[in-house]
Write a structure and sequence with these properties.
The structure is a single chain. The chain has helices at residues 3-26, 30-34, 44-65, 70-80, 92-115, 139-163, and strands at residues 124-126, 136-138. With 178 residues, it is mainly alpha-helical. It has one domain (3-177): Four Helix Bundle (Hemerythrin (Met), subunit A), CATH 1.20.120.450. It has a two-stranded antiparallel ribbon with strand order 1-2. Helix 3 (44-65) packs parallel to helix 5.
């Protein structure tokens, strides 16, 4: 399996798992979704908004590294045009906008992975973290970090849902994405 195929599978997995998480959250009342749950991002809605914000943040990092790839640039420009989710408690219509934006962002990340050539995985993604050391990391590493970010925060949501005794299984492997 090529590295590109692996990143496509990761992107599809994130999209599928996020659909299943949003389906669960859509069944909750706004009060239940917005209730403080003790996570770093507070509520289940806060975790979902952070997942979206992370995708938008990573897309911004990828833009310069992929500026030479017209298809990737078009996808990234569309992705970074998605507004960051609002802070604070969300109304039902704001939640619906966030849920739609998560789906749109996930679709774009899948398309981005599909638009890449194998050699582009070595493209340098510039970072301003860690005092400039390292100044950049390979795109492949950052794509993996995007996947890990989603998994990590869905895991936090899963723990909360488990405590609420709400059935959730978006962490399993969906073979249909292969």
């Amino acid at each position: 399996m090529t590295a590109i195929k692996t990143h496509i599978i990761f992107a599809k997995h994130n999209a599928d798992a996020n659909v299943r998480l949003v389906e669960i959250l859509n069944k909750m009342s706004p009060d239940e979704r917005e209730k403080e749950r003790g996570s770093y991002y507070g509520s289940l809605s806060g975790l979902a908004r952070h997942i979206l914000g992370g995708s938008l943040f990573f897309a911004g990092l990828f833009k310069d590294a992929l500026a030479h790839n017209a298809a990737a640039s078009k996808i990234l420009n569309g992705l970074v045009s998605i507004p960051y989710p609002p802070k604070g408690e969300l109304s039902e219509s704001q939640w619906k906008d966030v849920a739609a934006s998560i789906a749109k962002a996930d679709e774009a990340v899948v398309a981005l992975a599909q638009s890449l050539a194998e050699a582009e995985l070595d493209a340098a993604v510039c970072l301003d973290w860690y005092g400039g050391s390292p100044p950049s990391v390979p795109l492949a590493f950052m794509l993996q970090q995007l996947t890990a970010h989603n998994i990590h925060h869905r895991g936090q949501a899963s723990q909360i849902l488990d405590e609420l005794k709400i059935e959730n299984d978006y962490s399993g492997i969906n073979i249909s994405i292969l």
